[in-house]
Amino acid sequence: MQRRLALGSALTGLGGLVASGCASTAAPTATAATPFALAQPSVPIAGSTEVFPVRRIYCIGRNYAAHAREMGSDPTREPPFFFQKPSDAVQFVAPGRTTDHPYPPLTKNYHYELELVAALHRGGRNVPVERALNLVYGYAVGLDMTRRDLQRGMGDQKKPWEIGKSFDRSAPIGPIHRVAQVGHFKQGAITLKVNGQVRQNADLNQMIWSVAEQIAKLSEAFELMPGDLIYSGTPENVGPVVPGDLMEGTIAGLPLLSVKVVA
To answer: What are phi and psi of 156, to 5 degrees?
Structure first.
């Protein structure tokens, strides 16, 4: 059944989606019935009427050396690590428009992290690095929004810091651009402005672990599948935003991501 996504403002702006009638991993049947309809989160595909269904959102931590140091880590010794956000954390941001992004509850230190996002249309386990980019369907600009005070507080207690990363609308994202259109992103400027002032400014070639290496490492721990998104890490100079602030993120070759924080 085709219908518009109805998860409230958390996914405002997404295109038409297929409602899922089965949450099981088993193959769906024509007669399967559920007590309610569950929408499939998705992201529009640039230049198309199609949408990209989102299965999982993986994020890599501290993937630029300067950012690792500002977070108190040693990038020369730390292996890659990953965390996840729920698939319905995506908030679509249409090009040429500024999307309102509600300031989340419980935090007093809300941080931006601009990132390149890789969208997979193939999966696998133990994928070799040299074949990893074959899994990528396209790329987008994204924000890994973070309730930094909650993340640090849970970390200090040696408890999982999911509450700081995996909340509603914590993954703003622009449209996905197919590899056939834009190629693979191995270098290029990645820049974030807040209220017109540059806050983050780096090059994708400064990643510690490339997108291909991230895919290979992830596939050692998880079976990657079509529909997975990988947020590939943020440069240094992450920092707070408050209601009224305008965030403008760019990656060379992709359209501007414009998000305004609202109360």
So the answer is: -65, -30
Residue 159 lies in a domain: yes
Q: Count the domains in the chain.
A: 1
Q: Does the structure show a pLDDT above 60 at 88?
A: yes
Answer yes or no: is 140 within a domain. yes
Give a yes or no: residue 1 inside a domain: no
Tokens read off for 26: 């088993």
Give the model's pLDDT for residue 27. Answer: 53
pLDDT in the model for residue 14: 36
pTM score: 0.86
